[in-house]
Amino acid sequence: MFSEELTIDTRGQDIVDLSREVAAFCDGRGDGLVCVFAPHATAGLALIEVGSGSEDDLREALGRLLPRDDRWRHRHGSEGHGADHVLPAFVSPSLVIPVLAGRPALGTWQSIVLVDTNPDNPRRTVRCSFLAG
Amino acid sequence: MFSEELTIDTRGQDIVDLSREVAAFCDGRGDGLVCVFAPHATAGLALIEVGSGSEDDLREALGRLLPRDDRWRHRHGSEGHGADHVLPAFVSPSLVIPVLAGRPALGTWQSIVLVDTNPDNPRRTVRCSFLAG
Amino acid sequence: MFSEELTIDTRGQDIVDLSREVAAFCDGRGDGLVCVFAPHATAGLALIEVGSGSEDDLREALGRLLPRDDRWRHRHGSEGHGADHVLPAFVSPSLVIPVLAGRPALGTWQSIVLVDTNPDNPRRTVRCSFLAG
User: Fold this and answer.
1) How do residues C1-49 score in pLDDT, each as one tens digit?
2) DSSP label at C98?
3) Residue of chain C nearest B30, judged by CA positions
4) Nearest 5°: CA angle at C106, between C102 and C110?
5) What's the topology of domain C2-65+91-132?
6) Which among B32, B57, B95 has CB closest to C1?
7) pLDDT over 90 percentage in chain B
8) pLDDT interval class at A122 (50, 70, 90)
9) Residue A81 to residue B34: CA distance in whole angstroms
10) Which of helix, strand or coil describes residue A82?
C-alpha cells in the first residue's frame, strides 16, 4: 500500500478543495482504491460540486443543524466548538474513491473537499492510501 | 480490480434499491471489498431496510433537514435543487461493503439504496469496484 | 482478506467505543485498509472523540434531528424506533481506516464508535475485514 500524509494549509477556510492533491497522489498508480482519511476529531471529507454556491449552502446547513451556540457539553476553544466534534459523525473523515489508470473516477461535478468548521487549526493533515487491484 | 459502471433507470424514483445489481456484480469473485460509488454531485448511497416505511421516513427527514425552498445559493433546475447538492455531504456517494465468497456480507435487513432527490435525472450510473483479498 | 465478526455487548449503551477491538483485530497484519462494518439496519459507525462530552452532544443532535416521536412510518418496537432506521443513512454503518504496521492510523483524538440508538438489542456484531496492501 502506498500511504502518504498530505499537509493542508487551510488558511482558515472551512471547506478546502483537495481534488488536485488527491489526483497527484494517485497519478501513475494504475487501478485500485484510494482511501482519503482526515486524522482529526473535528473534520470531515465530502464529495460536492464547488464554485456554484454549494460551499455556502453546506455552511448554512451545518450551522443550522449543528448550531454554534452554548448547548454543547464538549467545551473548549471558540464558542460553539462542541459542534465541530459532532460533525464527523455526519460528515465522515474517511472516503474511498475508485481509481482507474491512475485517476480518481470522480463524476464531472464532484470535488473532494475537507470540511473543517474549526477555525483554530490553519494546518491539517490528510492521509491518502492507495490499494492496487 | 474489477470495475464496472452500472446504468440505473431510476424512473424518477428518489430511493432505488441496488442490492440485486451489486450482488450480481460480486457473484463469483470470492472474498474482498466492493466499493459502490455514485459519480454524481446530487446523489448518495445508503444502507437501510426497504419495504417497511423507512423510504418515506428518509424522505421526510431529508425534506425537513435540507428543505426544498429558495434558501440555497446553488440555483438551477427545479425549485430547491440546491438541497440536492448538499445531500452528498451527509449521505456519502461512496460505500464500501465486505464480500465473502462472492456475496456482499450485508445484514438481514440491509439493502443498498441510491438516494437521489433530484427528479431531473431518470438515468444514473453507479460504479462497482471489487478488490480481492 | 482476513474477516472476522466481533460480538459487541452494548449493555444497552447507545455509543460504544470499539477502538480497542479494532486495534486488536489489526495487530500484526502490516499495512492495508480495514473495513469496519455493522451488519444492522439501525446502527452506524463514527469516528469521534470520546470522554469529553461529545457522546452526549451526539445524542442531543441525533434526538433533535431524528426525533423519537410518532412521525415515522416504520413502526414497531419502542416509540420512535423509526428514527433508528433512518440513522444509517446519515451515520453510515461502513467505515474504512488505513492501517500502518498493524495499527489503525487514527488521529490522537479519534475513537471508533458504534452508534446504536435502538435500546432493544444488547448484543450487536461488527465485521472487521483487512485488505493487505
Assistant:
1) 999 999 999 888 899 999 999 999 999 999 999 999 999 999 999 999 9
2) E
3) C1
4) 140
5) Jelly Rolls (2.60.120)
6) B32
7) 88
8) confident
9) 36
10) helix
Question: How confident is the model at residue B51, as a pLDDT?
Answer: 95
Q: Which grid cell is C103?
A: 495499527
Q: Could you tell me if B90 lies within 8 Å of chain C, comparing CB atoms? A: yes
Cα separation, B46 vs C94, whole angstroms: 10
Please tell me the CATH code under which domain B2-132 is placed.
2.60.120.460
Contact C40, C111 (CB under 8 A): no
Closest partner residue to A71 among C33, C52, C60, by Cβ? C60
Catalogue the long-range contacts made by A20-27 (C-beta closer than 8 Å, 24 or more residues apart): A21/A126, A21/A128, A22/A97, A22/A104, A22/A112, A22/A128, A23/A103, A23/A104, A25/A128, A25/A130, A26/A99, A26/A102, A26/A103, A26/A104, A26/A128, A26/A130, A27/A102, A27/A103
> What does the block give as the cell for A78?
471558540
Q: What are the distances in angstroms from CA A82 to CA A118, C92, C111?
A: 10, 21, 16
Within 8 A of A57 by CB-CB distance, chain B residues are 71-74, 82-83, 85-86
d(CA B15, CA B31): 28
Q: How many residues does chain C have?
A: 133
First and final CA of chain A: distance in angstroms?
11
Cell 417497511 sits on residue: B52
Assembly ipTM: 0.96
Distance CA C86, CA B90 (A): 12
Rounded to an integer, what is the distance from CA B73 to the centroid of its chain? Answer: 24
Contacts of B40 in chain A (CB under 8 A): 107, 109-110
C-alpha cell at A119: 477555525
Q: For residue B47, what is its C-alpha cell?
A: 444502507
The model carries a pTM of 0.97
Lookup: cell for A113: 473537499
- Contact status, residue A35 vs residue C18, Cβ threshold 8 Å: no
Which residue, chain included where needed, has cell 477555525? Answer: A119
Give, for C37, the enclosing helix (H) or strand (E).
strand C32-37
How many CB atoms within 10 Å of residue C133?
21
